[in-house]
Design a protein that fits this description.
The chain has 324 residues and is α+β, with helices and mostly antiparallel strands. It has three helices and 19 strands. It has two domains: 142 residues, Lipocalin; 136 residues, no CATH class. The chain is 16% helix and 51% strand. It has an eight-stranded antiparallel beta barrel with strand order 1-2-3-4-5-6-7-8. The protein has a five-stranded mixed sheet with strand order 10-15-12-17-18, with no helix packed on it. A five-stranded mixed sheet has the order 11-19-16-13-14, covered by helices on one side.
């Protein structure tokens, strides 16, 4: 009885200390378990580096480990396309190796309107530190694609602030497969050059322009006496250089097309049956033909027109003033 009383007194004396250590141990165990999981939101860049260029993918991964496998969503933005895909794979918590299978990603050298998919597996290692968690590795092509599709390497960071179970489960349950092509809006316009429409002189280009065929590719009707133009490269930025003619008058020459717009304001002559905008290709860029996206706005309506010119023809748009 005496020993029992002594044991009880000792337990009561050390219980607060034991309780504190037990709580700390459980917390550390929980943190360790959470730190070794791939659960949550992961963000970062993925890159293909070739001898001539680097191609960047922006990627978001939302992962939910299940018993024996991992499921989730991969969101990817590449050039002007965005896609959202469901992904599945495995995660080995002992080796911290993550594998996701058969993911269709755009080929790094794809051009606009001709995007080719590479079927790839994701292989990644989870790295955990006091600064945060990272998934590092690469998308690797399946055997049938390995000689065409280069490895896409990445280092994704975990966003701990939004990696909550409810948020992840909600994102996965509300998933809808998406494929979108980005089109420049008013707020996306970066102005490369503001061109004041007046006739300029370049005898060489004016002579060559008359020797080429004007091919009518679009006719539009506008309501305003003035239209606003924004001109971009239509596809991969590959060094396309153009001149622009309006009603056979040269407005500018030797302008390189990029993701930044060349902006003009043009008067619409209602006395003419139609007004013509012609794109003259000074070269074919690295990827022929010479292509452009021209956005025309009359204040009420907006037209997105894609032009393609070469060394034999000038792509031409006809603009008519709407009759009241």
């Amino acid at each position: 009885m005496k020993n029992f009383t002594q044991l009880r007194n000792n337990f009561c004396r050390y219980y607060p200390v034991l309780k504190k250590y037990l709580i700390i141990s459980l917390l550390l165990l929980g943190l360790k378990s959470q730190g070794q999981s791939v659960f949550g939101y992961w963000y970062g860049n993925a890159n293909v580096k070739t001898n001539s260029s680097a191609n960047n993918y922006l990627v978001e991964l939302i992962l939910q480990p299940e018993k024996g496998y991992v499921s989730g969503i991969l969101n990817c933005f590449f050039k002007d396309t965005y896609r959202s895909l469901k992904v599945k794979g495995n995660y080995n918590s002992a080796t911290r190796q993550l594998s996701l299978y058969e993911i269709p990603l755009p080929y790094h050298a794809s051009i606009k309107d001709f995007e080719v998919d590479c079927i790839m597996n994701l292989q990644a290692t989870l790295r955990v530190s006091q600064a945060g968690s990272n998934l590092t590795g690469a998308f690797k092509a399946l055997p049938g694609y390995q000689y065409t599709c280069a490895d896409i390497r990445f280092d994704f960071e975990m966003n701990a602030d939004i990696s909550k179970k409810d948020s992840v489960l909600k994102a996965i349950s509300e998933y809808k497969e998406t494929y979108q092509v980005w089109k420049p809006g008013v707020n996306d316009t970066l102005v490369q050059a503001q061109v004041i429409p007046r006739k300029v002189v370049n005898y060489v280009i004016e002579k060559e322009y008359t020797e080429r065929k004007n091919e009518i590719v679009n006719e539009i009707e506008v309501e305003s006496d003035t239209v606003q133009l924004a001109i971009y490269d239509n596809g991969e930025i590959d060094g396309d250089i153009i001149s622009l003619f309006y009603n056979k008058n040269l407005l500018f020459f030797s302008q390189k097309l990029t993701h930044k717009s060349i902006k003009l304001s043009l008067p619409v002559d209602a006395g003419l049956e139609y007004n013509e905008i012609s794109m003259f290709a000074e070269n074919l860029g690295l990827i022929p033909p010479n292509t452009a996206l021209i956005v025309i706005s009359d204040g009420k309506n907006r037209h997105e027109l894609r032009l393609s010119s070469n060394l034999e023809k000038n792509a031409t748009i006809r603009i008519r003033k709407k009759k009241n």
